[in-house]
Amino acid sequence: MTTNDRAEIFLEMARSTYEPQMTAHLHKDQPILLPGAWSAGGKVYDEPWDITFFGPLVGEFKYAVNGAPDSMSCWREYQMYWVGFPDFRLTDYKVFLKEDGWIARITFGGTAPDGQIATVHQADFATVGEDGRLMRMEWFVDTYQWQQQVLTKCSGLTIPEIREIVHQPSGYNKLIDYVLALPQNA
């Protein structure tokens, strides 16, 4: 595979990762599918493989996918964001290619019913194996920015209360569960 072939594959995988998140708020009742995000050309494999993920609020974890668009979805996370910001979405991204994948600079945003506007940032570092499968995805954020602008609004919790939850094992999932169980969401 040539360098140009790899570059095209990486750009398509990145587009498949980010663009569905730009319009997800328009279809809140449907899972957010990421066709082509997990493997080159959206290839589905008989045997799943583990992708290692890392983020500052969740730590490192592995998730098994087979390449299908519904292998993994960020829908529950977005459902949490939509509690505070009904139009929360990925608003912009720029991809920078690297030898074994890409780096993306991402902006998310939304407007709360009270008019509060959130604009938060993330950087993704994606590593793709020689066979075209996503092997590792790390994302980095300004944790305080996300907690202050987004998570406090969605949860009604203070930053210390949010930190107490997310620093537990599976803490970010516990925060999502907490927010989705709030009376206005029940």
Automatic annotation (TrEMBL):
<dbReference type="InterPro" id="IPR032710">
    <property type="entry name" value="NTF2-like_dom_sf"/>
</dbReference>
<protein>
    <recommendedName>
        <fullName>SnoaL-like domain-containing protein</fullName>
    </recommendedName>
</protein>
